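Re: folding output
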Amino acid sequence: MKQPLAVLLVFVFLSTPLAGCFAEDAETTVETVESVWNFEKNELTWYHYAGAVDAWGNDSVALEGRNLPYPAEGTYYGIGMSTFEPTMGITQTDMMVMSSYGNGPAGSTAIISCDLIGMVDVLDYSCENIYDPFLPIANSNDPYIYVDPWTSRIMKFDMHALLGMTVEWSDDEGASWQGPSVATQFYSVQDHQTIASSNMPAALYETTWMFCINGNAPHPLCSSSQDGGATWGPETSGAPVTCSSGGLSAHLVGSIDGNFYRGNKGCTGDGYSIFRTTNAGISWTEHVLPTSVTGTADTWNAEEAQVEVDSEGNVHAMWMGLDNMPYWSYSIDQGDTWSNATMIAPPINLSGTGFPVVVAGDPGTVAFGYVGETEGDEETWNGYLTYATDAFNETPLFTTVQLNKVGDPIDQETDCGYNRCGGLGDFLDIRVDQYGRTWFAFSHNLADIGIFGTINLGPSLRGDTISMMDAMPAGGMATL
């Protein structure tokens, strides 16, 4: 009976040192987790969370799935002509166009097409005017172009000295033009127009068209077309009939679900609202944005809240707060409810921003364009693009790129971002192409040249999963 006990004691004695060795190995084994910040950061690119909180190199917040950081770089490409209040569009065959004030035949509004989409490896592109009808319409003081995303019809609006608007359109990328038709009412002046289409089948066309203007009413007046823009209905209230929002409206946008949205001051108070119509302007509803916390910018263009929809009809709004910083909120129920206001500026001590535009690709992706001035860099205004690839995440990661290099400001005028400023005019424009690349139409005022700003290196805003786009060669001053 004593022998098994002795054997057991010997075994325990011999195994105790071994157990110590195994314990030491367990204590010194450290699981290594690869950082998501495994690429080189461009000096004019910033990764951040809401409120300008720097995210670069921080692995304490779990970033995964669609919310990962990607290498990113911004640049711009000149169109070779000046612009004023640039509007833009992209056809389904990748023709990209921008309006150019007074540079068309006989002094008309030119429509400049640049073959930038698909350019890789070598900086080699060209831009040309595609508007050249037999009888060009005289230049207007407010040109506006829009491309129907569902049919690729290019629509050209010209507003003539506050008296009215003429409309022309092309279904063959500018090879031929139809019209003009007249879109105006004699009982109202016409100013600050905005045009869009929605995926609502009309009586005589595949989509429904609408425009809104600042006229003789306490709110915008809007008109719709059931035949693709050839004829237009009467201009009626672009808000609830009791609304006193003021007439200046941000860009109108049409949705995949047939709705139209526009943004400006609310009917009461100083906050911003998004206005929605589900029936092509017969009636409108007001949807108040969460601006009570942010306030609204005390600047010339403070009446505008920009709005955009993604490919499934989710709504994104952007505005400048009382601190002159850019804010964003989204709605997944057609504007009935909104997320909390989110400040999206990068961690670079911007002293102010202006001229906001917003665009969305597929659900969960959104991009914002604006101009900004940094503290200590007196009256030097730059162009910025900020994007998120997982916008509905509880802690979305934002990436911001500066589009112009240091020493190449787009403007140095006092308070440029807060006023009508050179070629920036009253407003800018933005679109995302079918590959997920964002294109921001604005002006290099010091050179007096229209420019397309973009992310030449970065992820796509299209697709169920996030992937890098083919890199484009940098542009910049060499393209002016």
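--- second protein (sequence, then structure) ---
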Amino acid sequence: MSPRLLVIFAVSAALLRAAAPSDVAVSLYKSKQYPEARAAFEQITVTDPANAAAHSYLGLLAMKRNDIDESIKQLEQATILAPTNSDYFMDLGDAYGAAAGKAGLFSQLGLAKKCQAALEKAVQLNPDNLLARNGLVSYYRQAPTFAGGGMSKAYEQAAEIKKRDPVMGADVYGALYVKDKKFEDAFAVFENLLRTHPDNYLALYSIGRTAAQSGLRLDRGEQALRRCLDLTPAKNEPGHAAVHWRLGVIAEKRQDSAAARVAYETSLKLDPEFKLAADSLAKLK
């Protein structure tokens, strides 16, 4: 065993004596100490093989290191041990979706259908699981009809999301309108949201995103994105690195390569791992 792993197990053992195992492991996960968290959760499954939460976290950790097969294995076990937990089925659906994206044509359809079934099960177990519903929106709008996809199904889920969360619903509807190239409808959804939720970060970002994608209303898109830079995004919202990347795309559509370069470089300073900005900058050179 490597010295690093010995240290990890020693730290985990000391912590496990001081607090409940799940609390310690979850704390390590939340603080992004992923190798230590993995060791802690693995130890839990040794002493308590039926601990569904531990298997769930091991699945999430496997996904972070791009070990999709291991992620599916752990998350499948979590759903077996806790068959009424909506979140576990949602995460399993995401893992199947990731596997389908990398699979060959022969295996792709089967994995896609498993993704759909898991996400639908998550929504069945908890109709208020909006992340699972949003996952279904993404699935339905991308999958062909023979694999259970379809824009009508996506819009049905968007309507259910909007009932429960008008802000999230607006973003989902806007994305669907963009997919259908109904750009003016997308702008209208986001602008309407701003009337009731001034300075809503996601609505502003979505206006900028739609402008960058469509090439329409570029001035308004830039204005909205620059306002985002004055605000703080929520945990699950696109960060300022993404904002600068979108500003770069808008600059390119104006054929302003110098401004685009500055925007992409600024994006990468904020997040050196932001592949979209890196790719855009590489193409610009």
